[in-house]
User: Fold these one by one.
Assistant:
Number 1:
Amino acid sequence: MSKEHWMRDLPPELRDMSIINLAIPGSHNSMTYGINGSSQLAPDAEPAIRRWYRFFPCFVRRWSKTQSSSIVEQLNLGVRYFDLRIAQRDEKFYYCHALFAMEVFEPLMELRRFLDSHREEMVVLDMQHFYELTPNHHQQLHKELIQLFGHRLYSTADGSLLDCTLNRCVEMQRQVVIIYRRCPIPLPLRFWPSFAWPTPWPNKASIKKLQSFLEDSLLSRQPQQGYVSQCLLTPTGRYIALRVFFSLKRTARRVDRKLYPWITEQTPGPFDPKEQPRVNVFLADFVELKDGQFCNWVMELNTKLEMGPEMEEAAI
């Protein structure tokens, strides 16, 4: 399977399944690869980060970047779900994670070009957090996003998320789902609200506690919702202080290695309200590690849907 065309290459029966019932790789804080040596403190930086930045800006940059690959590189690895954090500065919109990254629409233009040349691929843009945006800023951002993606947006007027299949979206020329969370003004019909696609934050610095959280929180998923499993640690100040010469990338390697058994035993697909909920999106830091092994693990889960329940049970 070609990773850059993996949705196109799915078997017909999976292309007729809702995207909320497929296993989809996602990247956490997707645009932090834009953080560089000139990046300044962003509004979401905690007080401890601000103190460290005064004396150790390189140290802060090392723990603020969660991705090294560009948006096109992530797309070519198979990432189809992007976790976005946005701040406003001088009437412009920027991505951020303690530090400012690039302007919002630079990588989104690259994304649009990718979609234009990959007509049978879809992406989900999760506008996860906003910092220092007024209602007028939100209104402006709505307008610019709609102008950029136009007819490509799968809107709430097109049907439910359960109706959002790859084949149907190809027919309708829809390629983008935008989730817009915590908005202080009414959402346009083109966007989906938070409850449509829950993304529980683990906020754990221990891999053992992270796995327990992932298992427990998945039980709350409803059949009509998308769902995100965040396979990542949230380092505390103490965690970082004890690992001064480490980096978030090293932490990501440990998480991948330890969570591999749990991830690969999961199953996507539809489920009834009385059944055990199944998985959908998986988020990770540094998705390019070992040639995108995390993305490979997640995409491979979809082969369980091809097998059918009897063969899947026999394989286990």
Number 2:
Amino acid sequence: MMANKELEDLRKWKEANRFGPINLTPTQLGGSISEAEARQRQQINLRDARFQKNAKKEDYNRKRKEAEELEYQKRKEIQREKATKLLEKQRQQEAQRKTQLQAEHQQANQQFLQRIETNRSYRQSPLPPNCTAQTTAWIKNFSYRETQREAELQRLPEHKEEQRRKSELAAEKVSRLESERQRCLQEEHRRKNQIFLDNLERSRKSLENLSGSSPPVSDEESFEPHANQCVPAVRSPEVLTEMYQDSSNTTMEDTACRDSREADIDYDWNLMKLQSFFPDYEASVLGDLLLQCDSDVEKVIQLLQGTN
């Protein structure tokens, strides 16, 4: 019943508050301009709105950059003030430290001068009768240092003389060792040359016995040029030392080069032997025969003897 009563009251309220009929005077809609003109105005307003939007955006960016630049300048000013304050503080600390060091230096100088004045007054003051029993530690130390200094000055010439003698002995020993080494080297060269000359003499005699046509020649005349060619020059100790150092630093390529040089030296020695045995032949012919026989001197000698 209550619900029906409320619904009835609502219906009655709606009926009492219903809008009445609307009576308007008929007019033409759209204003007094045509559709084409309205559309043209819309395009103009749209284009102007785009330009205004870009102008507003540029104005906003310009204002933002100006604000950032102003903030950056403020920060620079703050940092500059801090740096200035720090430099001023460091300058004050440096001045304070210099003042303190100067005061300490003056104080140290004053103490030193007072100590010197005290020692001078002590030295100039008359000594009491019992001075030997009341000798201070400073006087003992001073006298001890003076005696030590005098002893060192006295020993200095002796020490210099001893060092000079040691250096002379060392130099004499080095020179004696160098002379002995050079003498041993010369004896070794002389021994090798003598062995070579003996072998050469025996070969020549054997060839003379076989051929019987060569005229008699004295030993000195026949072997003097060979001896002059065979005797190697005696090198100085400095040159030998350099050669030893160079040989100790050689690599595999240096070893190969040295082997080739030794082969060339052996070839020259063999060619010289053949020229001494067969002086009538030319050096080029003997060289070709030696190369064909693989540097075998005995084979070349047998070949030439068989040819003769």
Number 3:
Amino acid sequence: MPLLPPVLYHYFRTPLPYTRTLLLQEKIHQLQLAARRSSSHHDILLLLEHRPVYTSGRRQTEQELYAERARLTSIGAEFSIAARGGQLTYHGPGQLVGYPLLDLARTSPPIGIRDYICKMQKMIQSYLLRTHGITHVPSDHTGVFLDPVTKIASIGVQVRHRLTTHGFAMNVTKEPLEWFAQVVACGLVDVKAGCITEANGRDVRVEDVVPGIVDAFGTLYGRDMVKLYPQSAGELGEAILALEEDALAAGEWLRAPSLT
């Protein structure tokens, strides 16, 4: 098997607006498609937090979500319909989101979608156990569970032309939990959200988990991980820096849902 190029990773330190981040993923997807003809394209891992937002998957229709959109935006979150798999979920500060933008056809044979998702799930499980001593329980549902009714991480991906978008979300602090409590996340009626801070009994910041997740990602996918420097990354870097400017300009966000 030929040696695979490294995965370039970038961590955004300011929570990002969801819709603009979707546009960045789409931009990278188009750059990868264009550069793949000459095998000069890069695999990318974006690590970030979002501003408070509820997102639906492609299984749900606008009609089904009309009332939910009105209710959830009234408590202070954005609402967006995404092209990933899965159903309604939440993203926000205190949760590490990972968007791997990989070419699954780099290997021979290409990585299958099911295997790609399985590796992602094992990557999160491995990180939680090795770094925090947190064990998971097996589940029939996609994602990572601390017990049969407590979910700490979700996975929802999209693959087009064997190029991936969307990815995983792992709750780190307690901040996302109250937002999750306002919905039936991922269609799982009896399931609640958990987080690293509650599971191991000590405060952990999102920025603290980034190095370990990068290492675990490289190990599970068998890739070297190299930090991306936007200032020297051409059109890709310009798009990343523009999104970071947008995030700073957006200012503060609600720390808890407005329920009064």
